[in-house]
Amino acid sequence: MDIEVLNGLLRPKAIAVIGASNAPGKIGYTVVKNLIDSNYQGDIYPINPGSDEILGLKAYPSVLDVPGDIDAAAVVVPAKYVPDVTAQCGQKGVKGLIIIASGFSEVGFTDLEERVVNTAREHGMRVLGPNIVGILSNSDSCNASFAPFLPLPGKAALVSQSGALLIAMDAATYTRRVGFDKLVSIGNMSDVNFADMVEWLGQDENTACISLYIEGLKNGPKFIQAARDAGKPIIALKSGVSAHGAAAAASHTGSLAGSGQVYDAAFQQAGVVRAADLNNLFDRTLALSLQPPMQGDNLLIVTNGGGVGVLATDAAERYGLPLRFAPEDVQEELKKHMPAFGSAKNPVDLTGMAGMDWYQGSTRYAFAHDWVDGLVVLYCETAMTDPVEIAQGIKQAIDESGITDKPVVVSFVGGEQSAEARRWLVEHGIPAYDAPDMAINAIAALREYARNTAEATTPFQRHADVDEAKAREIIAKVRAENSTSLTEVESKVIFEAYGLPVATTRLATSEDEAVKTAEAIGYPVVMKIMSPDILHKSDAGGVKVDIQDEASVREAYTTILANAKAYKADAHILGIAIQEMAPWGTEVILGSIADPTFGPTVMFGLGGIFVEILKDVTFRVAPVSADQGMTMINAIKGAPILKGARGEEPGDLQALSEVLSRYSQMIHELGDEIQESDANPVIVYPEGKGVKVVDARIILKEK
Amino acid sequence: MDIEVLNGLLRPKAIAVIGASNAPGKIGYTVVKNLIDSNYQGDIYPINPGSDEILGLKAYPSVLDVPGDIDAAAVVVPAKYVPDVTAQCGQKGVKGLIIIASGFSEVGFTDLEERVVNTAREHGMRVLGPNIVGILSNSDSCNASFAPFLPLPGKAALVSQSGALLIAMDAATYTRRVGFDKLVSIGNMSDVNFADMVEWLGQDENTACISLYIEGLKNGPKFIQAARDAGKPIIALKSGVSAHGAAAAASHTGSLAGSGQVYDAAFQQAGVVRAADLNNLFDRTLALSLQPPMQGDNLLIVTNGGGVGVLATDAAERYGLPLRFAPEDVQEELKKHMPAFGSAKNPVDLTGMAGMDWYQGSTRYAFAHDWVDGLVVLYCETAMTDPVEIAQGIKQAIDESGITDKPVVVSFVGGEQSAEARRWLVEHGIPAYDAPDMAINAIAALREYARNTAEATTPFQRHADVDEAKAREIIAKVRAENSTSLTEVESKVIFEAYGLPVATTRLATSEDEAVKTAEAIGYPVVMKIMSPDILHKSDAGGVKVDIQDEASVREAYTTILANAKAYKADAHILGIAIQEMAPWGTEVILGSIADPTFGPTVMFGLGGIFVEILKDVTFRVAPVSADQGMTMINAIKGAPILKGARGEEPGDLQALSEVLSRYSQMIHELGDEIQESDANPVIVYPEGKGVKVVDARIILKEK
Chain B, 206-225: which have a CB under 8 Å from a chain A CB? Predict the structure, then answer.
């Protein structure tokens, strides 16, 4: 990362506003005024060939006339002037352009946008935008945008692909009391994209949590890497996940929305926490920016009301943190802080009589206890207790416990007094919500962050015992034949080159060769027609199974050829494949796609109805480690079947996860060539007996 | 419904407060003070043997000393005095008791509670509580509770099983701006339960929407009927749906939490809309109390921001209202209210330039168009447009359209100005939210209400061609044998009595009888051991299939008996069942349970892994019509399999839905006897070819 350059762009010490104006209502006026109003401490250079002074500041005809250095230039001139302006900025040694102007790729002028970016790159400049609102930073007192004010101060940074949403969210930070240090509008992402922003914000001392509003990523793998390396929580609201929504997002931003499922996988692999909707983005950002991750599953709930306790318990299950009863010693101690009819289990019900003392006593003890990985304190407003006093009691107890490596989240349900207590808590670093479910959802975000980070950091170890050259040789041969479709035999050679356990399959081009091959492989065998023109071999009568001897091989050879001719007279027949007949087991499917955003992506699912009817599949961006392969196996609903749920022997999941890893390495390393592939079926045998790839298919990219 | 009595309890013209007190802090003081402070217009009679005057009102030693009539008595004396007080109230002719006092069944004193209810019933009184906060009503200016003030006025009524939550929600009505006319705390439900409240609120002119916080219902079928008859929207937040949550709810209220899935089914059958959490209860109540149901699936979204438009589109899919593009003529007209780069599809994107005029013009036209079943208007706060002005423009357009039978819901995302616009809209009858997803969720509630109402009103037509007497005869015979477990043959006779297509099965007690029976049924047949001591017939070698002739019948008879003896020497053998061998088809399962809350409940699912691994089943409280049976079939994930998704012939769903209806009638009519039953497997044949119940099982209730 060209950190100095990005610092210049995103934390500039001097800003030029190119297209500055004295006319209120013009963006060139608003941006200069916002910089002044935000108390920006750097130099502001309004650029306008027709004015000497703008809003009390000396104006210059061009950046080349400015005496001092310029870090960033906010560009608000019409799109057609931007290439020239960019060249001038390059000459001046500007580090980055904040191109607020619109009229580029979002309306089809992709060439114009490319010209600007190329010019900028020639001069070592970075470009934010075009088609953006600008950048806002509390810690730099810098509002270089046309959004009317800086957000409520806080520790999060928001990067938004929608400018309109950024402006509305800016205002909403005050009504929702969720603070941000920075808001960055990323627009067309002609140069600086989400990966760049995550990388840069990862090292920014004023950012504790990175919040993203994403319609479509560019360069998915780079984003995944940046997110893994960021070392701080990232939360993403991804829109355009519905089919209709994807169409709307595409028309809106011009970027590919991508498949929802692949995004799901990629975010998980990247350690990114998801927001379900806009409210959830605010709510989870608050927790992630104020509290540490939750490192284990033991959630303790302390409450003064049974009703909110039960709602929180339901929510805990819904959000993946089902409650467990607290250990005996914990219950015994907690009993001291409640009346006889209270409950010290989990939720810990202090009863409606609970005032500050009981809340403080129970919270101090529970938060410090080793068993507790995270604490949620619920309060239901009563007529007898003071919410603010209780809030202060909770805060004091947390401080006194001396624990800083586990999270606490609070919910106060009630009216204005509870709202005041929540504001006080948030100002003192404790996320507070107006509903119990929300507090649970928030602490679940902290748990997800810890879990996703664990998955994200599972290292992929490249398998060295592969023969990439052999694979590429086959591919070159197919390319030379002007084909993009590999036969089963060709596909299997490549699979074998990556150490995948394929059912041995050899091509025979004569009856005698068929017999020789069958004998080499060993009976029983399967025989299948090999023709680029016959895709559905069974329909063509092109498959015979369980062939036990020489006579049957000869008979099958003749029959299959005759059937194929009858099915399609002009079919180009390559020969007949002789295949080892794999014994029966549980069928699974591996597949791969070349995702437009994330590149080679592996799919896993159980065969038959599980894939066809239930769409019970899971994705990961390649490559994946065997550990991640195991996570994939466990992610499908039908996983119990592989584990022997129906009284059968558990399958060899170790071998299967290894196969997933090798397969993912294959599609990753050959990602420049392979468009899609599958291994279908793959038979999983009982533990220790391995798996077998029965059929294989590879389709190459059109070039 | 004893409407006069319930009116006396819930809209009293004169209230006695038994246990009234002059001591601030005592509930007897608070309740009197709250009645005075709420400007209650009826008579207030403080009852306290030790005081002449309480809070400026004349006090009486007992209700019997009060000169005027008393409609309701709020009871705040300690639990042990409540029976005497109840008797006095009965003598006085009080209509209903609001028993705020606690110390009854919730802490194990069930007898005490029963005594109170029995005494009340003897005098024709109804009892609300005990263990409640009280009742609050804006339209009656009546705060007969210890909650500190009346809620924000509105058109909804809340009935809460948790008193603490009711108090907190009372305060929250002001901060959330969701108005209620009434809040009713229902506590232990010793007498008045949710069904009574729904019935009474159904006819209450000041209630437009009934909101329920439920931990556990009593008398589920009565609740379903009351909800169906209410004729206005009902929304329920059901807690205790997780296993741990159910345990917490049970310890909290003493009522059975019931199975989440059966509640889901019952609410759907009752036409009740669900709330996902506490926020959702508020948010959906707002929409249901202000807007009419949405009668079709065509949702149109108008927006000024692509970002919120895409988020709303995703939400529409998530909440069961996937968007469709508006028809050409609609698009053409809408194009007039936006710049060239806007979009008239769906979402209709007026662009960030949209001011009041465009919003007004597009909304007026769209809302009046026949294609549109419901409208969501989104606004993303900008620096150039005035939210309040736009809100007023939208309201005016809706009014001018003259349409009142379809819903409109609005979202304004932004800061204080948007909040003001939302408040203005809500005050003018248009539900307004701070996030686009929430507006969609709210209009989805209005759609769910219309859909659920349709399912709730599908009438069950009793099948008259059943032989209940025959069924009861079999049951009586089994009871006479001191058994609760029917054999397959006995179960099938009952199934047949209800017109269910069972595979013919007859018991043979000798080899010759077996042969005669097999010949009567027709070959091939299946033979199975019949013994109350052998439940897993296959494991015992007690099943032989595909028996083709007399010799095989004789051989099977001997073998099965020998196997059974070997399996369990002392097993009581009833004989061997000879069964028609049903041809192969798609296997489904019907089952029934006696739900503690809802009574006989029917389950449906696909056989095999679908039930065992995926728990892909659906429930309905019995009885169900064939139409509802069809809804059940469509409700399972595996439904496409029954419809021929895998290239097979579509199954006879007509026959299957009829079977579901008859089966549900059987378990309903014999609900006093049957504990559980199943038909497993039931084979579904291609369209027009019917279904066949292959195996059947009935277990009777312990008596």
Answer: 213, 215
Confirm or reject contact between B283 and chain A (CB < 8 A): no
Return the biggest CA–CA distance within chain A.
Answer: 100
Q: Is A261 on the interface with B (CB under 8 A)?
A: no
Max Cα–Cα distance, chain B, nearest Å? 100
Bridge partners (DSSP) of residue B600 are B594
B527, B544 contact by CB (below 8 A): yes
Question: Higher-confidence residue: B2 or A166?
Answer: A166
Residues of A in Cβ contact (< 8 Å) with B276: 437
User: When comparing pLDDT for B72 and A648, which is higher?
Assistant: B72
Nearest partner of B621 among B180, B272, B201, judged by Cα: B272
Is residue B380 within 8 angstroms of chain A, CB to CB?
yes
Q: Which residue of B has its CA nearest to A645?
A: B613
- Where residue A504 falls among pLDDT bands split at 50, 70, 90? very high
Tens of pLDDT along A88-113?
999 999 999 999 999 999 989 999 99
Q: Residue A323: which of B161, B244, B313 has the nearest Cβ? A: B244
What are the DSSP calls for A17-55, one per residue? EET--SSTTSHHHHHHHHHHHTT--SEEEEE-TT-SEET
B643 contacts B636 by C-beta, under 8 angstroms: no
For residue B399, the one-letter residue type is D
Above 60 in pLDDT, residue A256? no
Q: Which residue has the higher pLDDT, A152 or A638?
A: A152
What is the per-residue pLDDT for A247? 59
Is B146 in the A-facing interface, judged by CB distances under 8 Å?
A: yes
Mean pLDDT of chain A, nearest integer = 93
For residue A610 the two structure tokens come to 């599980």
Which percentage of chain A shows pLDDT scores above 70? Answer: 97
Q: Chain A: residue nearest B309 by CA?
A: A248
More confident residue, B60 or A536: B60
Inter-axis angle of helices B82-92 and B110-122, nearest 10: 10
- Conformation bin of residue B274: beta by default, left when phi > 0, alpha when psi is -120 to 50: beta
Say yes or no for a CB contact (<8 Å) between B352 and A164. Answer: yes
Low-confidence ranges of chain B (pLDDT < 50): 250-258
Percent of chain A with pLDDT over 90: 83
Which of A174, A178, A294 has its CA nearest to residue A233?
A294
Using alpha carbons, select from B333, B319, B334 the residue that is nearest to residue B377: B334
Q: Torsions phi, psi of A522, nearest 5?
A: 100, 135
B51 in contact with chain A, both atoms CB, cutoff 8 A: no
Q: Flag if B638 and A609 touch (Cβ within 8 Å).
A: yes
Residues 586 through 645 of chain B touching chain A, CB cutoff 8 Å: 609, 612-614, 637-638, 640-641, 645
Could you give the ipTM of this predicted complex?
A: 0.90
Q: How far is A307 from chain B (nearest CA, A)?
A: 6
Residue-level pLDDT at B246: 59
Answer positive or negative: Cα dihedral of B11, B15, B20, B24: positive
Specify the residue for token string 């009902």: B234
A618 neighbors A647 (Cβ within 8 angstroms): no
> B415, A253: Cβ pair inside 8 Å?
no
What pLDDT, in 10s, does the model give residues A258-269?
Answer: 467 899 999 999
CB-CB neighbors (< 8 A) of A248 in chain B: 306, 309-310, 313, 345, 347
- Please state, as a whole number, how many other Cβ atoms lie within 10 Å of the Cβ of residue A370: 9
The residue of chain A nearest to residue B257, with distances taken between CA atoms, is A310
Contact between residue B590 and residue B680 where contact means Cβ atoms under 8 Å apart? yes
Print the SS3 string covering B13-66: CEEEEECCCCCCCCHHHHHHHHHHHCCCCCEEEEECCCCCEECCEECECCHHHC
Residues B234, B158: contact at Cβ < 8 Å? no
Mean pLDDT of A398-419: 96
Check if A42 contacts B (Cβ < 8 Å).
no
Mean pLDDT of A108-119: 96
